[in-house]
Amino acid sequence: MLTHRTLLNQNGILRKFVKVASKAFSNMVLAKKYIYVKPYEGMPTEENVRIVEEELPELKNGEYLVEAVYLSVDPYMRAYAPNYKIGDTLIGTQVAKVIQSKSSKFPVGQYVVGGFGWRTHSIIKDDIPKTEWNVPYIVDIDEKFPLSLALGVLGMPGNTAYLGLLEICKPQPGETVVVSGAAGAVGSTVGQIAKIKGCKVIGIAGSDEKAKWLKSIGFDHIINYKTDDLQKALEEAAPNRVDCYFDNVGGETSSIVLQNMNKYGRIAVCGAISGYLSKDMTDYPKATSVQRPMISFELTMRGFLVNQFLDKWFDAIAQNQQWLREGKLQYRETLYEGFDNMLKALVGVLKGENTG
Ligand code: NDP
């Protein structure tokens, strides 16, 4: 039966992710996992993936067994698809509980964040080099916060916002910051950090409901890119033009923002979701070229993957957690219940059904 629901907890906070209930058997563990069976064409469908079962072996020394509690659902899961081979397990990060262990580093009962993929149970070695992306680590967040935050504002999306904004845009007090994909996990955090840094913040999002929430958490202006004239709305909201642009979407939206930048503006190119349903990188939707504003306004535009900042990972989580404690950061999550709903949750993200 269906299990898609959006939960509202007593603090009025929406929680988003896929929460998993799965089975461990007495002597052996039967894992479920999603495998890629047919290349995506546009929006993912049930024809593209299949859930299969896998009997896990006994643990060896230095290994531990985790059971997924929350699986993150992120736009990159669609963007990455051209790299999949048929039969691959779908990629992703989860918060998982250690349920058996032959490792002193990951004892039973601990919660771990790791890139274990779309799986209910996984056996992990405890010596993955720290230089690798998505190396597992033990969750270290206050008990009063839900564990799922380790996949959101206190995890990869929160760090993407914090590090991308501060390391690349370097916003100064009084400057104007624009962020697209503003109501997502990354965008909503970017806007709030820019406010903490004393900036004026303009968000671009796809619904009035999202706009209302973003205004309630401190954004100065919201532009609905589906219904507003973006150029006109930017001229009104940013009479002193735009100093920093945190780009989550790409495409024509970003071309228009670039035409409204100030001299020496900085652009952090974080995501390009407007093109993620494309076949591959050669198939992206065409947009107005950006060279002219880049030259005229002497802009600096830098693309990044958040893992380039691994050395600052835990400092970023600590700062975001401190701002959460102080009430300076707010968050929303959208929660789908049940492992069988992973695909539905991914389609929801790609259709803009999620907030946070
Ligand atoms: P989001 O929740 O922001 O992504 C989903 C949202 O994107 C939807 O709710 C929708 O909001 C918007 N969207 C969907 N389709 C389009 C479209 N065609 N044009 C414009 N907006 C669209 O996800 P995250 O916060 O997790 O990530 C934000 C971006 O950052 C993504 O592009 C992601 O790939 C990227 N990213 C990059 C990282 C890096 O290391 N560089 C790390 C993490 C994320 P709406 O209703 O407003 O349309």
Automatic annotation (TrEMBL):
It comes from the Eukaryota. The keyword NADP applies. Its EC number is 1.3.1.48, 1.3.1.74. One of its GO terms (cellular component) is cytoplasm. Keywords: Acetylation, Cytoplasm, Fatty acid metabolism, Hydroxylation, Lipid metabolism, NADP, Oxidoreductase, Phosphoprotein, Prostaglandin metabolism. InterPro entries: ADH-like_C, ADH_N_2, ER, GroES-like_sf, MDR_fam, NAD(P)-bd_dom_sf, PTGR1. It catalyses: an n-alkanal + NADP(+) = an alk-2-enal + NADPH + H(+); 13,14-dihydro-15-oxo-PGF2alpha + NADP(+) = 15-oxoprostaglandin F2alpha + NADPH + H(+); leukotriene B4 + NADP(+) = 12-oxo-leukotriene B4 + NADPH + H(+); pentan-2-one + NADP(+) = (E)-pent-3-en-2-one + NADPH + H(+). It is an enzyme of class 1 (oxidoreductase). GO terms for molecular function: 15-oxoprostaglandin 13-reductase [NAD(P)+] activity; 2-alkenal reductase [NAD(P)H] activity. Residues 45-355 form the Enoyl reductase (ER) domain. One of its GO terms (biological process) is prostaglandin metabolic process. Gene3D superfamilies: Medium-chain alcohol dehydrogenases, catalytic domain, NAD(P)-binding Rossmann-like Domain. It is found in: Cytoplasm. The keyword Transferase does not apply. Belongs to the NADP-dependent oxidoreductase L4BD family. Monomer or homodimer. This is Prostaglandin reductase 1.
